[in-house]
Structure formats: structure tokens, C-alpha cells
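Standup notes
- DV: blocked on the single-chain target, sequence here:
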Amino acid sequence: MYSYRVQEFEAHVTEAFGSITYPGDDSIGYDSTGYDPESAEIALDLRGKPWAELSKFDILRRKDSLAFLTPEAFMFYLPAYLVNCAKYPFEVDTATTSLRGSLTPPSSKALERTSAYFRSRTQSFSQEQCRVIVEYLELAAEIQRDDWATLGMESPEMPDIERALAWWRRRAEES
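- DV (later): unblocked, structure below
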């Protein structure tokens, strides 16, 4: 259906994120104190791995890891999630939901701390990278609509994707 579009998207991701530098072994997990064993395990698992080498199996294994990454590691590993969630939306289980959640700004009811956390993870993206994120979110919405259509049903509303798209489109237009 959209395999050509996914191949084109993968090329856009590589172009936009290709020059991002590895955050360093000690800047992967947000908690380096040892109090959070999951954060430490994720940091150990990703240590030294280029984002382009992460497979759909790596993403499946670490489907909920984005929340545990530092802002620098989030930016570095996000392309792997974007590509694998676009190419294998059903094989990576809930990684697509985790990815969409990490790209969706908090609602207006969210606590200030949540908003600051989101801003810290998203403020360093370039316009080109923001455009690629918009492209992913549009593709994710299309995949969801197509999935429902194969069942002969209309897709439910997607407020999370719509909120994320509005936010990232504004970021992509900023100079």
C-alpha cells in the first residue's frame, strides 16, 4: 500500500538525522545513579550502538524505552524508532504507541513538570528533523486509517496524532 512512501520516508530520516552525534556512553539513560534499574539496563543495552543499526527486533525489545532516555539519547535514537515504526507498525507491538506518545505535547491540563520534560526532549530538533517527524505522524495516521479500512470500518478520531501534528508543524515552520 504505502511501501514506496515508507522507503522515501526512510531516506528522509537518514538525511535529516544522519549527522547526529552519539550522546556518549554515560548520557543514554536518564538515571545514571542506579536507582532505576530499567534506565540502567536500557543504557547498557544501547551503549555504543548507532541508531541506524537498531532493527525491528531491537525496537520491539525496547518498545517502551524512549521515556527512559536523556534528551540527547532521545534525539539520537528517535530515527531508529521512526524508521522501524513506519516500516513495521504491527511487528513492533506498542512501540508505535510509545513513539506517538513521546512526540505528543502534553495536554493543556498537564502539569508544568510534564511540559518542561517534553520541551527538554524536543527543543533541539532542526526544522528538517521536525518536518520528518511531521511526515512520520502523517504516515502513522494513514497506516491507522488503512488498518481500520481493511476491517471495513471507519478509523476512530486520533486526537493524540492531531495534537502532535499541530505542534510539530508549528516547529517545522519556525526559523
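- Follow-up: The chain has eight helices and no strands.
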